[in-house]
Specification:
By secondary structure, the chain is α+β, with helices and mostly antiparallel strands. The protein is 37% helix and 15% strand. It has helices at residues 3-7, 12-20, 26-44, 52-68, 112-119, 162-169, 186-192, 229-239, 282-297, 313-337, 342-345, 352-362, 366-386, 433-437, 465-478, 486-489, and strands at residues 47-50, 79-83, 123-128, 148-149, 152-156, 175-180, 195-198, 221-226, 268-271, 301-304, 392-396, 416-417, 420-421, 441-449, 452-460. The chain is globular and about 60 Å long.
Amino acid sequence: MSLSNQLAYMSASELASRIRRRELSPVDVTDAFIERIEERNSSINALIYFGFEDARRAAKRAEQALVSGEEIGPLHGVPTAIKDLFDFKPGWVSTFGGIRALRQNVVDFACLYTERMEKAGAIIVGKTNSPLLGFRGTCDNYLFGPTRNPFDLSKNSGGSSGGSAAAVADGLLPIAEGTDGGGSIRIPASWCGVYGYKASFGRVPHTGRPNAFGGTMPFLYEGPITRTVEDAAISMNVLSGYDSRDPFSLPEEIDFTKALTRSVKGWRIAYSSDFDIFPVDPKVKEVVARAVSAFAEAGAHVEEVRLGIKYSQRELSDLWSRMIMPGSVRMLDSMKAGGLDLLAEHRDDFPPQVLEWLEKASRLTAQDVIRDQEMRTHIYDAIQGVFEQYDLLITPTLACLPVDNATDGNTVGPTMINGEEVDPLIGWCMTYFMNFTGHPAASIPAGLADNLPVGMQIIGKRYADVDVLTASAVFERIRPWHQTYERCANRLVTS
């Protein structure tokens, strides 16, 4: 068996340990994962920018550091990738999710994920696919096309961090970056059968400029997508911690790996199959209902709850769209001031749904914004009400199974579930409430329906990230999912 195949589904934790013990070379590891990407990426379209020469140079420096006995980081020599959205590495192209006019757009600065992962010794090999401006729960765009689901190539990976989730599920990388403004870590984690973690707001600094406060409408995050809970905990050790550039950055230092050995015995866990208001595919409900019982097996008390949400799911998905799109309006306006008017000169680069919401967002008034914050407050109060009596809240991550890929670069989700109309961009995603509220949340593989992955969302109290990781680790021990990746590993690779 080639080294590429031997390492494909090895955890980041084990890779780092074996590199530290000099059983594996960072150069050989990097070459092995590059080989696997070159062999398999064309079938799933997970990575869209390949920084292989930069990665090989970084691997040689990592090898020299080992030889010279330098102090090394917790992910020394471990390959990873960043997302092609608002995520950057100096000298690399950034298309902001497949805007054709930006195919040669090179940036000269780094995002926080790049900064902290490289400081921890990780080696960034490329960038992963994303929908344009991240404005949907699927992964497709006019420039690069859809990212295909490793469990079924006719299906979509989910988005917006779809390339990252597909790469991890297919063994192209042990860990990849996700960003999350409405579920973009958790959505593709659910459809690709991997683990996606979104921390409490402020836990991982948001260092965007020129607007240091731009990560609050709704709350925006960077975080890890992995195959194991331990790898996510190690990544959180790397990514979290105070940064003076973020006015909301939390100063608390936490070792998230301590969560891995805790128990949930005696915990009170609330379960909602639909947040009161979402139509949910019965197949999804069935898988998640079975998965929730694992916590009862672990000694927790699990109870179904209602949250008392008074708005419809369509009103709330529209609220999310109104809240997140003004940031893109401002970004495009800044580009126009710099001499590139994308909406005038390259309007055909934008899907019609994006153009519709850009127009709506540009007409918002101060009164509109205040009313939207009042709606947001209702969701915050409903979630907080659950945590007055319970330690965790469990829901399905998504209301449906993976959808078919479109052929025109504009894949969207379902328009109807159980006979009820939903917004095809985000209305089937039971994730964006946590971007309204700031609570920590993870999507964990709950099982399969029709041979496709189903995710379970684990939500914790504000700042109780350790509780979410603890529950995730307990579930992983009771209901391990690693063997499901054999379906991806043994899949026929097609170009």
